[in-house]
Amino acid sequence: MSSARDNAEAPQGTAAASVSASTHSPGSGLAAALVVFARLPVPGRVKTRLAAGVGADAACTWYQACAHHAIEQAAGCAGWADVAVYHSSADDTAEVEAWLRGEGLSVPCRPQLGPSAAAQTAPPPDLGAKMRAAMCEAQQRLAAAAAAAAALQPVPGVAARGQQQRSVQLQERVDEWEGRGARPQEEQQQSVECGAAHAKVIITGTDIPDVSGRLFAAAARALDHHDMVVGPSADGGYYMLGLTRVAEQLFEDMPWSTDVVLSETLSRAAAAGLRVAPLDTLPRLRDVDTAQDLAEWVTGCSCPSGGAGEVSDVSLTLTAPAVDASQGEWTPRKRVLLQVSRGILAAAGKQ
């Protein structure tokens, strides 16, 4: 996830389409869970290293544009994935939902492990603990939905009334997981054991300009034959991690925010006996932490000419063909992100 570190307007003439990743029915046949880590865009609280080079307000504006793009790409996978945004515990869920709704993004939002959970432990949970808890919870939610879907299938010899009762009970279990974000954080922390072996779960962040729905689909396909797939980032970390087994050792005491996160993760995966997809399954991308990162991303961009209407829809199927994903598709939101990036760099004298 972006090496594990820590208000764009729509183009003129284009209407920002509403993209939904709302709760699926139990019979929807979801293939994977997709977890997106995000923060409420507040100056001084997001992209602080970028802010050191371009200012807190500009860094917040950039993060907001990048998050809109990333979350839209994730929401476009709702046809095959259970998509949810897990926000910082310092943010209010209602505020995060309101922010996204204002951008036409209807995505379930849940808090990460936070202060109330931290109060129960010493030391407080780090990024790894939050990632593992979110991935385990997403797996459990997917498993509950699958069980409810199975309950809807007729069982020979079982009375209709009995089957209906069973379906209601399992739907209640799904509802329980859907409402889990409102539970006390300490209860969440006590329930992070993964009980959905082999369920695909993919996690990513919101500071990777070239992330795309096709990459999420490629990661999900890779998990058909592997236990783990990773999207390497240019700084020695990773921007995406897909697992069928959320092994604790991949997250515990990891040297986050260093250039050895990827190599250490791969070493631990091998020790855990995980079948890891080839490292070139997903392209090496750049996450943006500093003004230099941003300038290098802008310099390397090759945005095609033409209006936003020429890009394809963000809605993707799991069988969408693979593409050269080092740049991804230039959706309207990504074009806005590039425009915002150029403006920020110019204002800061970095371009």
UniProtKB/TrEMBL annotation:
It comes from the Eukaryota. Signal peptide: none annotated. InterPro entries: Nucleotide-diphossugar_trans, Trfase_1_rSAM/seldom-assoc. Gene3D superfamilies: Spore Coat Polysaccharide Biosynthesis Protein SpsA, Chain A. Residues 1-22 are annotated as: Disordered. PANTHER family: GLYCOSYLTRANSFERASE, SLL1095 PROTEIN. This is Glycosyltransferase. It comes from Chlamydomonas reinhardtii (Chlamydomonas smithii). The lineage of its organism: Eukaryota, Viridiplantae, Chlorophyta, core chlorophytes, Chlorophyceae.
